[in-house]
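Exercise 7b. Backbone tokens:
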């Protein structure tokens, strides 16, 4: 049987980390090799490390979206408390995984290009809200021990988690797509030996 106090304590460090407090993360090492992609003169070039981390965040966000959507679907069935406890534990792990990736993104922020910095800024508050809402779901399940799985409050929290997860996955996907499109544009520009007119 799942122990929710243990699940909650594992989520709490992530919440504190995302709020800007210094918390060590297991396996969060420093990247030693820094490479960049060609870009406009006078502007910070795209960081390959940041692009790689955004790709990782996309995979993690998609997994989180799937798990949160599946748990939200439980509100339309009669699944027991133990099943819901297992799924929220998976969601907690998903949130922690993407939290570690965002922590590494913030470590690399100084090397990021303008659009990459914007991506980090936009992802962070969505993840903060997800961490907060996931904690609320865990606390609710802890408190009621399955007695109110059909309550409107419970349904609303699971719906909110699914929506936030979808929003996060969409934002990360859009930035990753933008980065790939931009990279292809510069590769073609270089191949065709084109340069933008001065002042543009």
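Sequence design result:
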């Amino acid at each position: 049987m799942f122990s929710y106090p243990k699940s909650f304590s594992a989520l709490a460090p992530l919440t504190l980390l995302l709020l800007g407090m210094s918390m060590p993360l297991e396996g969060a090492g420093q990247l030693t090799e820094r490479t960049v992609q060609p870009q406009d003169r006078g502007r910070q070039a795209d960081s390959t490390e940041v692009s790689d981390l955004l790709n990782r965040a996309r995979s993690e966000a998609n997994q989180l979206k799937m798990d949160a959507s599946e748990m939200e679907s439980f509100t339309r069935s009669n699944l027991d408390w133990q099943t819901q406890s297992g799924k929220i534990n998976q969601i907690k792990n998903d949130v922690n995984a993407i939290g570690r990736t965002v922590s590494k993104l913030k470590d690399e922020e100084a090397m990021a290009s303008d659009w990459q910095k914007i991506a980090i800024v936009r992802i962070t508050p969505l993840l903060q809200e997800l961490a907060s809402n996931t904690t609320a779901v865990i606390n609710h399940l802890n408190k009621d021990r399955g007695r109110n799985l059909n309550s409107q409050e419970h349904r609303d929290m699971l719906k909110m988690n699914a929506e936030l997860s979808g929003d996060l996955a969409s934002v990360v996907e859009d930035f990753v797509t933008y980065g790939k499109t931009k990279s292809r544009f510069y590769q073609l520009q270089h191949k065709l030996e084109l340069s933008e007119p001065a002042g543009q």
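Instructor comment: Confidence is low (pLDDT under 50) at residues 1-40. The helical segments are 4-18, 48-73, 81-107, 114-144, 152-191.
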